[in-house]
Amino acid sequence: MRRLMIRVTLMVAALGLLGSVTTVGASAATTDRFILVTEANSPFGKGTVGCCTITSDANGKLVSAELSYRGGDYGMLRARADVADAWEKFELSVSDSTWTIKSNANQKFVSAELNYGGGDYGMLRARADVADAWEKFDLYYNEAQNLYAFKSQANGKFVSAELSYGGGDYGMLRARATEIQAWETFRLGSF
């Protein structure tokens, strides 16, 4: 608990030093609330963050990497867990302004599946051994609300938690939104 409080204090102090940051590629609705987080202004310090859980602010559920799914759904990220276990732990890393997300459970980078069609287009999956174009994200932060948003650099879309999907697809994370709304906001926590 003390480590979390120290991290939060450092994050708030670092963001207070930022001043105004232009959010390249963000819509007008997001620029006054969210700032682009880079290596230079990261509240986590430089390089690997080495933490965290990701929680959808829209449904209050932790994001899981679905490692029991098979085929093209293997490693699907879903906002569906109440407790942080192995599948709900991720590592964030930054280089300049490019962020990667890696599942601690299978040690795979998270990809935005841009070759999928229909309702699976842009599905996030923990399945890559190296961070290439589909595994790179922009990270945005709203200090006032302590909320984060991820944006795929490959297609320029914000990551959404699909709360209207049912069954095994409920809460699927997809890079498909043009602006940050309720389904595109997340909280980061330590474990």
TrEMBL record:
<feature type="signal peptide">
    <location>
        <begin position="1"/>
        <end position="28"/>
    </location>
</feature>
<keyword id="KW-0732">Signal</keyword>
<protein>
    <recommendedName>
        <fullName>CBM11 domain-containing protein</fullName>
    </recommendedName>
</protein>
<dbReference type="InterPro" id="IPR008999">
    <property type="entry name" value="Actin-crosslinking"/>
</dbReference>
